[in-house]
Amino acid sequence: MQRRAFLQCSISATVLPFAVPPLTADSPSPAALPDKGILVRSGQDRSDKPFHFLDADFYVKVSGKDNEGRCVIFDTIRHKKVGPTLHIHTDLDEWFWVIDGEFKFQAGEEILRLKAGDSLFVPRNVQHAFVKTSEGPARLIVMHQPAGTMEEYFRLVSQMPDNGFESRRSLAEQHGMRFVGAPLKPD
Questions:
Q1: Does the first or last residue of the chain, that is N or C, have fewer Cβ atoms within 10 Å of its Cβ?
Q2: CA–CA separation, 94 vs 88, rounded Å?
Q3: For residue range 151-162, what is the model confidence (pLDDT) as tens digits?
């Protein structure tokens, strides 16, 4: 019985640092966070400024400004069979959740097919890209954690008159992204 308790404590001590973030000088104080919930209705953007990029409509549902930069969450509607170039985030992780439609993803060297209900977590410094493969509109939830400057990047790049690869590359590097390959083809 004592051995079992010892093992449970040892396992808990090993897992706990990953489950509960440490309190540091950088941890937000409870007073700095909102004191109520933030509702963003369906089809609306957190700041009432949805934007369009790579033939997708972006709606910010949770802004990094809401949570001291812990994460940013986008609800995206994808219209055409296009996606971002193969890239790496150097300072944040990315999580994808397919709500409607189907997508082909590359994460590292692996090619994955995701459909409605599937999700994919891509840690920082892992190359990744995706492309919509299904017909009609598709919906993909995308979260960056921490938020970094991804919301700013997407808003800026969506407004650029020249949205070409080289223009995006320069801006991406300023926002912790490195382009490492071509976009995926649908099939």
A1: N
A2: 10
A3: 999 999 899 887
Pairwise CA distance, residues 157 & 28, whole Å: 30
Listed residue (48, 106, 55) closest to 76, CA to CA: 55
Which residues, at least 6 apart from 36, have a Cβ–Cβ distance to it below 8 Å? none
**Is the whole-model pTM more than 0.85?**
no
Question: Residue 55: what residue type?
Answer: D
Q: Is 68 left (phi over 0), alpha (psi -120 to 50) or beta?
A: left
Which residues in 45-127 belong to E strands, given as ranges? 51-53, 56-62, 72-78, 85-89, 93-100, 102-107, 110-115, 119-122
Handedness of CA 62, 64, 65, 67 (dihedral sign): positive
